[in-house]
Amino acid sequence: MYQEIDLDKIDMNAEPPAEEPARQYYFMAKCRQWVREFERKNGRRPCFFTQTFGCQMNARDSEKLVGILGRIGFLETQDEHADFVLYNTCTVRENANQRVYGHLGYLNTLKKKDPNMLIALCGCMMQEPQVVEKIKKSYGFVDIIFGTHNIFKLAELMWERLVIRKMAVDIWEDTCLIVEDLPAKRKYPFKSGVNIMFGCNNFCSYCIVPYVRGRERSRKPEDIIQEIRHLVASGVVEVMLLGQNVNSYGKNLEEPVTFASLLRQAEAVEGLKRIRFMTSHPKDLSDELIEVMKDSKKICGHLHLPVQSGSSRVLKNMNRRYTKEQYLQLVDKIRAAMPDISLTTDIIVGFPGETEEDFQETLDVVRTVGFDSAFTFLYSKRSNTPAASMEDQVEASVAKDRFDRLLAEVQAISAKVCARDLHKSKEVLVESVDDHMEGYVTGRLSNNILVHFPGDISLVGRIVSVYLEEAKGFYYMGRMENPQ
Ligand code: 5AD
Ligand code: SF4
Predict the structure, then answer these.
(1) Rounded distance between C-alpha atoms, residue 10 and residue 258, angstroms
(2) Whose alpha carbon is nearest atom 2 of ligand 1?
């Protein structure tokens, strides 16, 4: 397993193969021919630009899309002045959609100057039928539209567009297909996301994800471990296992496996130094997982555990299937096993029917748990979700006022909590040269907090010991120990 197909060995005069991934390599070879023709005519290779909206899942999807474009022979460029522009969209909140429409207006002006430019849209927003209708009607200059279930088909759709010369639209409602062994171009050489499952079965009442990402499907553990081995062999030291609800990983496989046992297998991969994962649903977090995390040398000391609200009444209406008390008990259990663990969360304010008392319960959870950080969101009405038709939608000004109060609380607490490792030496994975301070690099602690310290580019990708000299709220300033 894990073999990419050599494009030079493909017979392009034959019929396209029916099975995947062979079919996509066939279309990559076809598109590469087009790229060569382009180069001959224009004296340069065509270039592409991609922009990713939304979560880490989308970021990983984009690495696969970039991998395919690279195999076809496109060169990557840093802005929309490109021959091929691809937006990988998000629809979790309405403002993500608005940003995409804004960008499309800009692309329209660019395409008027260069009519040969190709524009493609994919990702979660495209899974909404009314969005696709709107694009067909009002943004007819878009060339290719595809969704979340068939991102592996980019080359085939591009070929279709080049041949038939009209908008190529391919949206699947759902799928049970998982295509392995396609190319991917990693953003960082030393760390990578790894999908372990796709979709979500939880149907939290505010959330559009189950509708646009479909039902839960887990990859087989042997495919995941094989991919991790392959990544490690190419220089990766840290993986982030990705799923909407990793705690229910493996339940629907022919031979069911728990997430905890997948983690054990990942831990055994030689050369891998750090394992992260997200996201965990509190209702499914098992004692076995806590045990595995506690005993692990590689799993990072960080758990992202979205609480969404502190009010049991609101949680019930959100269909979260835990109460405030159960969440707090879970936190106690986790902390009893791993006292230093860093906990982060997601919180929505202004969910329909949320009262000031409900909001006070949320503030109470924030104070009781003392999160390292919290992503706070204003509730956004998503079409066709149960919450969209609930009565008592909270007035925007009230929600905004709660949001501001929550943010102030979260930030004050996080500044205190994050300082817990001050004056200690900790391992840091160096991620980049510092953008703002010359002669400095930036890296992450196991618990995901950033550290800036003097160093140069040669450290990037290495794990080094750093003395944490100064706590600056949500990051540290440090000094490397035993520099060589
Ligand atoms: N409105 C606001 N926030 C939302 N999220 C998901 N759906 C919505 C919505 N309709 C938030 C949740 C989730 C995070 C990824 O996005 O907090 O955990
Ligand atoms: Fe959305 Fe809930 Fe699934 Fe997370 S668990 S993706 S919030 S439905």
Answers:
(1) 39
(2) 379
